[in-house]
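User: Okay, second chain of the day. Same drill as before: sequence in, structure tokens out.
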Amino acid sequence: MDCSLCGSTHVKIKFNMISDRQIFACSDCDIQFLSPQLNDQELIKLYSENYYFAWGVSGNEENESTKRMKIATFQLRLSLILQYIKKGKILDVGCATGYFLETAKEKGFDPFGVEFSEYSSAIAKKKFGEDNIFWGTLETSHFNDNMFDVIAMSDLIEHVRIPEQTLSKASKLLSDNGVIMIMTPDARSLSNMLMKKKWTHYKLEHFFYFSKKSIICVADKCGLSVVHFEKSKKALNFEYLHTQYKVYKHWLLTPAINFLYFIFPKKLRSKNFYFSIGEMVVILKKKQA
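Assistant: Same drill. Structure tokens below.
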């Protein structure tokens, strides 16, 4: 199999996954990718309302503990974005129910979003309006070229079928002086090296696993430059982790989180703490002619 990112023939199976799927690794560009990918019907079923059970979200009721936790993370991301762009139109690709956009709006940005899930996009539309939220993929969205000063992709690029197409479309939508912020699992992180096949980011809905080298590679192919790279921290709490690992069962973390959850006082279960779980944040800008 050739590399789906750089076309190299230096590709080998790294891990066997369930459902006759494998994780492949390219020794040239350092990308890892899942093959075969879930088909469209499998994705539609996956990203239904049930997908958000891991957030503790059901129906139209939002989980306040999860919301506060995610907004705390997004405040970190916006603090980084504000070093480059202070105001303007912001597009969140994979906006889910709109927590990032709520945070960005409070900072003075005009919020827009793209969301593949019909369930969560409907919630976001109620918050920001039908015209501001597009239900579908970035590639099929109706937004105008050069429209956005900021495009955010938090936990998104690992889910898309062809990252080069997604970033190329984002580049077209981005203003000349705008920035793209990407947060994604880091396949060269310490957690990946320690957990190997049991790494919690290896999921069937994650089609690609980037490192700094491979994110630079795909950005370069799309006329973009990486201007900032850092290991990312997220706000987490035990209430959220307890729900997550009930849905995404892990041989070690599920019993460990369950134990800690039940010994923690109730008032501390929803208290946020900041921790790196093997992810990276990058800022991209258009290459200047």
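The CA atoms of residues 164 and 285 lie 15 Å apart.

User: Thanks, on to the next one.
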